[in-house]
Design goal:
By secondary structure, the protein is mainly alpha-helical. It is about 70% helix and about 0% strand. The chain contains two helices and no strands. The chain is flat.
Amino acid sequence: MNPCELTAAVTAIANAIAASLNDSELEVAAAVFTQLGDTLATIAVSRPSSDTSAKYLQ
């Protein structure tokens, strides 16, 4: 998937999620997805470059 296709897919998913939530639920979902992204980024940069990184998630 190229970058344009990826951003279009993410936008479509965001629109689909937002359409089914009220404003309060949307705020919570946004906060949860922000935390998820931040945590994934932290894990990614904290992993050593070897294949032994899986032990950190056990």
